[in-house]
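Q: What does the assembled structure look like for these inputs?
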Amino acid sequence: MRLIEGRNITIGYEDDPVLSGLSFTVDDCDYLCIVGENGSGKSTFIKTVLSLIPPLSGKILFENGLKRNEIGYLPQQAGIQRDFPSSVMEVVLSGCLNRHRKLFGYSKDEKERAMHELARLGMAGKRQSSFQELSGGQQQRVLLARALMATDKLLLLDEPAAGLDAAATAELYEIIDSLHGSGTAIMMVTHDIHPALNAADTILHLSHGSYFFGRKEEYFRSEMGRIFLKEAGHDHQ
Amino acid sequence: MIISDILSYPFLLRALIVGFLVSVSSSLLGVSLVLRRFSMIGDGLSHVGFGALGVAAVLYLQPMAVTLPVVIIAAFLLLRLSGRNSGDRAIALISSSALAVGVIAVSVGGVNTDLNAFLFGSILSIARSDAIIAAVAAVMTFFVYIVFYHQIYASTFDPSFAEATGIKCSRYTSILAVLTAVIIVVGMRMLGSLLISSLIIFPATTAMLVSRSYLMVSVVAAAESAIAFISGFLASYAFSLPAGASVVAAHMVIFAAVYIISRAVRCFRTSSVG
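A:
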């Protein structure tokens, strides 16, 4: 079942196209890794998928009931203040704000949903805690629960493991794998080659002016994939 | 005794009510501003207000009619156009420039205005019309903060996520900018342009020492602001102290007390755990 399809899109800002002729698809249960050097347009691509900036040409189609603004998004950590006084529940509940209609407080359903998402990520015991007192890995799990409040069809993760130590990184990838296993499609920007090698089904490699989109196996046989692997120290061919 | 005294003088009662409303609403704005790293915006805007008042006095214009739009534009520019990192620089530039314009205007015009009232406020001599404007602005701020509470929270905590889920962060930033400007302008008449920023910074900072959630920060900040204003106001009446400075001093005392107590509690907890 198709969720998102980009047809021949050009991404970038006015008069400054970063990449053109890009086509890609994300299906139900897909695991797409987005890789590429700094400045190759990964952030621009994400903003385009999130409908924050329109594609300069071409179209992004949302299918099978997936709505714009309903992508479970985990932004890069840099944007969040670590010392922000907020409870874990407040953070998670803010994930359903775009559908929120009540003036004061959140409804019982919304609270139950938040509890359910926290429990799935092993954070039920921390719901009363203050967000600022959690470890980096725990904070990421809370933000993942917030993303799941928007939808559990598709998660868009922007370098989720940045700044985490090895143990927390492994734990986070395990959680992402288990979400993928339970039917959530994953789109993940990463600098880390390992998730691409292990879990991903499809790869989108953005490079200055060109790109690769396809199955992981094809990617590793492609010129672009070989160079990427070599640079990442996985030159085993 | 003091309270019945105050209640028997209409101008004191008016000052008390307006000061209370402005204090509480500026504390709510302060929560979001401090967390957005815009603590100094109150200071900057009040200097812009001073500059505008000076120019208005020289040109014999209605002070409110000049100050309000100028400060709103300045707030808009500061919050919308400057990124989070260059915010403090932009505030310093705008505030010192505006202060210079104000000082030149006052000296060139030879205006016989009381500079002291501009700088340190005159809550007791606040005119009836100004009091009504201030009360309306404060109640409006209170109302907007409650209605858009969740949106303001989300766009303060994580603007990139909020944008992605369809919340127009820039809209709430603009609302925040306009409300801050209005509260600063009306508050300046009471506390003066040098002291008004304390109404924004102290409550939020004190509340952050003891709060674990955003809701609690908002509630504690509003309560702290109310207590500090009333106790400062009463102290100024009882000991014949300048009103604005007494209110700020009350904020300072509460902050220091809360800081010491919260530190002591934390030390006690860690030592009893370890």
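The domain at 1-71+152-237 of chain A is CATH 3.40.50.300 (Rossmann fold).
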